[in-house]
Write a structure and sequence with these properties.
With 461 residues, the chain is α/β, with parallel strands linked by helices. The protein is built from 18 helices and 16 strands. The protein has a five-stranded parallel sheet, sandwiched between helices. The chain has a five-stranded parallel sheet with strand order 7-10-13-6-14. Strand 3, helix 3 and strand 4 form a beta-alpha-beta unit. It starts with 6 loop residues before the first strand and ends with a helix. The site of adenosine-5'-triphosphate (ATP) has 17 residues, from helix 7 and helix 15.
Length: 461
């Protein structure tokens, strides 16, 4: 492990020891603040941040243990001294009563040193403490980053449609109700399923995912319900099913619309009776889990067509969450685009500052049949292909710019392209005219009234 250097607060009432230890730590490259006064130590702890706090146990004014106790009991203030932000604590004690050492560690001290100790021993313990502190800092950083980026459990988008999705997800998370999430491909069904689980009281328990479309029909049943040895040819051992694995937590049944009728009946039974029967087993087993199902098909329609069992549909559809397609919530596109730019720029270590306005306008006009997934893929490619800190239309493939002759057109849709060209022309004319509408209209060869019409149409002002 790397040689950690850190800032250390050292407290010992015996000046000679204090000086000797301070020198040794400094020689090892650490930055040491030393004091023989526990009162002074208290002030320093309140005023500054240290990586490590080394304190003697027996001191006249205030003992080390009391100092630690008081310090950890101080409520986090504006400057923040939540447990994660505190320095690591080491206690030194000559009167090594195991109790006081254990007491100190219960209060959050990392370790203790029994006097007399060798300098080398001190340096080893100090290094370990600093390693701990570094991990803690990194962990805190990751957490804060996650919170920042994934404010709403990773769900970006504050359009009305998404606010409603999030509101329902939060409500349902508190219950153990079955949830059916519907939406076109790439709208974020899995993301919402995870958010529900992560916010539920069962979040410490597993969330088991089963993609019903990806597993061959013949295997799906044993995958879900498990089997006992010899249940069928090839069942050499007993195997737990996904329902059993999800017991206590949630099971996410993705692409539920592809389940065959026989399995639909078995699933209905799980939902009604809360029990499963492994293949080849005589016994049923109770399970306590939440079912989150998702589909991009129209289950109601499938019920009508006799392809999906009606009872099961109603059992699943207790709390429906419908995620709108991206083209119906274009307001979300800028935030999503920015999120994906940051994500992929960071991943490949590229500095991307922004994208050209026209690119964003184009992204907002495109219809996104593949929804958020397609948007993310598009941005990822653009980030990889971009040659500077600004993403230009050339690197965005939905504009057809992979074939350069289609330079900069937002799509292959005539209407969309025409609108884009209109908007773009107006923008540039206004820019050249320094915002003077009369001049801009003249440049474009249209009347001022026509310009007013376009400005209103495209909400430019
Ligand atoms: N609102 C959102 N905020 C951030 N990322 C999102 C959002 N919606 C979707 N994504 C991302 O888009 C990708 C596709 O989402 P997801 O897999 O949840 O879609 P899906 O609805 O399950 O699609 P499919 O029906 O094809 O399985 C994922 O990488 C997901 O993280
Ligand atoms: Mg999915």
């Amino acid at each position: 492990m790397a040689n950690q250097r850190g800032s250390i607060l050292l407290v010992d009432d015996e000046e000679k020891i204090l000086k000797a230890l301070g020198r040794a730590l400094r020689d090892a490259g650490h930055e040491v603040t030393e004091t023989s006064s526990p009162r002074q130590a208290q002030r320093l702890l309140a005023e500054r941040t240290f990586d490590l706090f080394i304190v003697d146990n027996v001191m006249p004014e205030i003992g080390g243990l009391d100092l630690i106790r008081e310090y950890v009991a101080t409520p986090p203030d504006g400057r923040g001294s939540t447990p994660e932000e505190r320095p690591q604590i080491l206690m030194m004690t000559a009167h090594a009563t195991v109790e006081s050492a254990i007491e100190a560690m219960k209060l959050g001290a990392l370790d203790y040193l029994q006097k007399p100790f060798e300098i080398d021993e001190l340096l080893v313990v100090v290094r370990r403490a600093l390693d701990h502190q570094r991990l803690r800092t990194e962990y805190r950083y990751l957490l804060s980053e996650r919170d920042e980026q994934f404010g709403h459990y990773g769900i970006i988008g504050r359009s009305r449609g998404m606010e409603e999705v999030i509101r329902r997800a939060e409500l349902v998370a508190e219950t153990k109700s079955t949830v059916l999430i519907t939406g076109e491909t790439g709208t974020g069904k899995e993301l919402v399923a995870r958010a529900i689980h992560d916010r539920s009281a069962q979040r410490e328990m597993p969330l088991i995912k089963v993609n019903c479309a990806a597993i061959p029909e013949t295997l799906l049943e044993s995958e879900l319900f498990g089997h006992v040895r010899g249940a069928f040819t090839g069942a050499a051992t007993t195997k737990k099913g996904k329902f059993a694995l999800a017991d206590g937590g949630s099971i996410f049944l993705d692409e539920i619309g592809t389940m065959n009728p026989a399995l639909q009946s078995k699933l209905l039974r799980v939902l009604q009776e809360r029990e499963i029967e492994p293949l080849g087993s005589e016994r049923t087993e109770k399970v306590d889990l939440r079912v989150i199902a998702a589909t991009n098909r129209d289950l109601r329609q499938m019920v009508g067509d006799g392809k999906f069992q009606e009872d099961l549909y109603y059992r699943l559809n207790v709390i429906p969450i419908e995620i709108p397609p991206l083209r119906e919530r274009r307001d979300d596109i800028p935030a999503l685009a920015e999120h994906f730019i940051r994500k992929h720029a960071k991943r490949i270590g590229r500095r991307i500052e922004r994208m050209e306005d026209t690119v964003l306008a184009g992204l907002q006009q495109y219809d996104w049949p593949g929804n958020v997934r397609e948007l993310e893929n598009t941005i990822e490619r653009a980030v990889v292909l971009s040659q500077g800190p600004v993403i230009t239309a050339r690197s965005v493939s939905v504009f057809g710019s992979v074939a350069p002759q289609a330079s900069g057109l937002p799509s292959l849709k005539l209407r969309q392209n025409i609108e884009w060209v209109e908007r773009e022309t107006i923008r540039r004319a206004l820019e050249s005219a320094g915002g003077v509408k009369k001049d801009a209209a003249e440049m474009m060869g249209i009347s001022q009234r026509a310009l007013s019409y376009y400005l209103a149409k495209y909400r430019i002002d």
